[in-house]
């Protein structure tokens, strides 16, 4: 494989990286690697413009400062502070992704290929490579999978432990305008969680506060009761979560079921949920968990949800992905060419594996408490 064919412009001495996935972790990682002086080629299956997602709880200023390593002494903002508005609290997923995508688009050294699905990956003594859906092969010194909880890169890193498995509950999410429950946010520090009656699980409601956007609520229902429906709909096959169900993709009978259940839930949670149900604007995600046993093999490594899938209840999935990205940025401050690339990824695993395992395990206790509820 000839590396120079796959990167436009001169190949930097520090080397080259391929990142699979341009969502939150992949974008943060690309910025981090580019700031270390690597040329970064990013491949993303989806189109550039994306909506959806849910509320993310972010904390500004977390993580370590990433400094530009161009000798100018200029200290760039942390990746976390690029992602966040600076106001601690929930923010919309799409807004956070947009901020990272804009920062990546202006960072020298990054090329992002949207609508480019990676269908195969591999490595040899000198190079890691991907094949895209058009059959074109691209090579680099290291390859990082930021391809989410159903990661294909993970299959190469740990073929004996390839899948995140169903945690036993589903999260239904939606949004509602502030007017659906005016004044509630102020009295509840903008976010609250309750246990629902009749073994229905638990619910979080929060207000997303993004400058310049209308105030609105997001809600997340942690539901341990819908396994049969998820299997019928194909969202769950055996114990592996296949995909989310979105809006009209959720059966009318299921919407009726949620509407009926919400009638037993305390105000204003009932109104907020029913608002989304009436509009058929709900996303159902069968929750998967993955405790990693390894993060790297040779020149290939995984980060973000590809590396560790926690319960969203931990509120730590995104933060931990940022930590992975920052660590890799620090470690690639030297070159990744030849044997050095393999060593860098080994050190990454040494530094991040325990953190990832601990974070996922911390959320498993929550899942057990939902499933062991006496009415369930
Ligand atoms: C309901 C819910 C609430 C959450 N709340 C929080 C929270 O409050 N705080 C928090 O820190 N975390 C939270 N999380 C977790 C957080 O959303 C994830 O940890 C984070 O979004 C993971 O980002 P990622 O980039 O690793 O993966 P993803 O966002 O899944 O991105 C993977 C990307 O890879 C692309 N891709 C996949 N396969 C290929 C391929 N073969 N070729 C090319 N591209 C590919 C996909 O299109 C996608 O863009 C929550 C999660 C859920 C489900």
Task: Provide key terms for this protein.
D-Amino Acid Oxidase, Chain A, domain 2; globular; binds flavin-adenine dinucleotide; 6-stranded mixed β-sheet; alpha+beta; 19 strands; FAD/NAD(P)-binding domain; 10 helices; 25% strand; 6-stranded antiparallel β-sheet; 376 residues
Topology at a glance:
Blueprint: E1 16-20, H1 24-35, E2 39-43, E3 55-58, H2 79-83, E4 89-92, H3 93-106, E5 110-113, E6 118-123, E7 128-132, E8 137-140, E9 142-145, H4 153-157, E10 165-177, H5 184-187, E11 191-195, E12 202-208, E13 216-223, H6 227-233, E14 236-237, E15 240-241, E16 245-246, H7 252-262, H8 269-278, E17 282-289, E18 296-297, E19 300-302, H9 317-331, H10 339-371
Parallel strand pairs: 1-2, 1-9, 2-5, 9-19
Antiparallel strand pairs: 3-4, 6-7, 7-8, 10-13, 10-17, 11-12, 12-13, 14-15, 16-17, 18-19
Helix pairs in contact: 1-3, 1-9, 7-8, 9-10
Bound molecules: flavin-adenine dinucleotide.
Flavin-adenine dinucleotide (FAD) is lined by residues 20-26, 43-46, 54, 56-57, 117-118, 146-149, 152, 171, 173, 220, 285, 304-305, 312, 315-319, 321.
């Amino acid at each position: 494989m000839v590396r120079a064919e796959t990167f436009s412009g001169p190949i930097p001495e520090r080397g080259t990286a391929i990142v699979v996935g341009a969502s939150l972790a992949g974008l943060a990682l690309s910025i981090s690697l580019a700031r270390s002086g690597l040329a970064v080629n990013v491949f993303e299956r989806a189109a550039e413009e994306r909506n959806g997602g849910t509320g993310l709880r972010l904390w500004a200023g977390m993580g370590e400062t990433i400094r530009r390593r161009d000798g100018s002494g200029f200290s760039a903002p942390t990746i976390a502070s690029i992602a966040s508005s600076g106001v601690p609290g929930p923010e919309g997923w799409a807004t956070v992704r947009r901020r990272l995508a804009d920062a990546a688009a202006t960072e020298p050294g990054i090329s992002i290929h949207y609508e480019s699905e990676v269908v195969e990956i591999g490595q040899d003594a000198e190079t890691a490579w991907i094949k895209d859906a058009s059959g074109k092969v691209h090579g680099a010194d290291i390859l990082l999978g930021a391809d989410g909880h159903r990661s294909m890169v993970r299959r190469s890193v740990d073929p004996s432990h390839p899948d995140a498995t169903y945690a036993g509950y589903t999260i239904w999410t939606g949004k509602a305008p502030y007017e659906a429950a005016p004044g509630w946010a102020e009295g509840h520090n903008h976010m609250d969680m309750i246990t629902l009656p009749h073994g229905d699980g638990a619910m979080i409601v929060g207000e997303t506060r993004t400058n310049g956007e209308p105030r609105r609520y997001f809600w997340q229902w942690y539901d341990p009761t819908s396994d049969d429906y998820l299997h019928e709909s194909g969202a769950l096959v055996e114990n592996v979560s296949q995909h989310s169900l979105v809006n009209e993709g959720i059966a009318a009978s299921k919407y009726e079921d949620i509407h009926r259940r919400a009638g037993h839930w305390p105000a204003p949670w009932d109104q907020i949920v029913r608002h989304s149900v009436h509009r058929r604007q709900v996303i159902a995600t069968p929750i998967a968990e993955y405790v990693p046993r390894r993060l790297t093999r040779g020149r290939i490594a995984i980060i973000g949800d590809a590396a560790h899938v926690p319960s969203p209840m931990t509120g730590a999935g995104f933060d931990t992905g940022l930590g992975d990205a920052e660590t890799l940025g620090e470690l690639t401050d030297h070159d990744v060419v030849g044997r050095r690339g393999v060593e860098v990824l080994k050190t990454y695993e040494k530094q991040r594996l325990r953190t990832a395992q601990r974070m996922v395990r911390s959320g498993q206790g929550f899942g057990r408490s939902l499933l062991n509820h006496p009415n369930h």
